[in-house]
Design goal:
Length: about 260
């Protein structure tokens, strides 16, 4: 039995209307998502921890991140820059800051090959900090990425320096163990909790100093869970621990 033309026409019109509504709904959802995603978080109490979320490897962001740090360094007297790097990587960066050459940075950069941070802009970011913000102290709070290269090299450095029984050695070894656990299990809940624990241990030693931190955007919004929604993200856990003292903003590309 054939379908009458007028009914077929109505069905086509209905299909067009439904398709249009679906597209409009998707556009609206995208707009709302980005509005929420890029809305800064301002705490109710005076901010102590200033977190910036980035998209790793986005070359355009590193200049902006340097400008942000330079502002806090010069105008607010900040000296502690928290990074999504393992403890031992940050310690190597601190050692590099005291040297006249870039050998350590070059070796770190070589070890980052294959990761999102292996872009020339990252090296320039660190070099500018060394030049214009020379009293910067890096603190790494991630699990032990590159534990077989950078991690083991740092342990060997401490052994050669007679510091194999030091707190630094213990922290570095613990970070390596965290890295091994994470890469064996691929457990992102474990990593998020470990990052939070490491952050708290580092920050608690600073007597309430104001700090800036640069992490992937999945870790930095005090309103959200981690990327797979299985646990509160690092920033949200920190808010629960320290109270409403965390300010957050996502570092975005400049739209031309």
């Amino acid at each position: 039995m054939s379908v009458p033309f007028n009914k077929l026409n109505k069905r086509k019109k209905l299909a067009i209307v439904l398709s249009t509504l679906m597209v409009l709904s998707l556009i609206l959802a995208f707009v709302i998502y980005n509005k929420i995603r890029y809305t800064p978080y301002i705490p109710s109490k005076p901010a102590q921890i200033f977190l910036y979320g980035e998209q790793h490897g986005e070359k355009e962001l590193y200049e902006k991140e340097f400008e942000l740090w330079q502002h806090y360094y010069e105008h607010d007297g900040m000296r502690y820059l928290f990074m999504e790097q393992p403890y031992y990587t940050a310690e190597f960066l601190n050692l590099w800051m005291t040297r006249d050459d870039d050998d350590i940075l070059d070796q770190l950069y070589a070890c980052w090959e294959g990761t999102a941070t292996h872009v020339p802009e990252v090296k320039e970011f660190y070099k500018k900090i060394k030049t214009y913000c020379p009293e910067t102290i890096f603190l790494g709070t991630d699990v032990g990425h590159q534990y077989g290269s950078i991690g083991e090299s740092y342990l060997n450095y401490l052994k050669q320096s007679g510091e194999d029984n030091s707190e630094k050695y213990q922290i570095a070894q613990n970070t390596i163990n965290q890295g091994k656990n994470y890469y064996e299990t691929n457990d992102d809940v474990y990593r998020e909790n470990a990052m939070t624990e490491n952050f708290i241990k580092m920050y608690d030693q600073l007597n309430g100093a104001k700090i800036m931190g640069i992490y992937g955007g999945a870790h930095t919004d005090p309103r959200k869970k981690n990327w797979n929604h299985k646990v509160d993200c690092m920033a949200k856990q920190l808010k629960a621990y320290y109270g409403d003292v965390i300010e957050y903003q996502e570092v975005r590309k400049v739209r031309k």
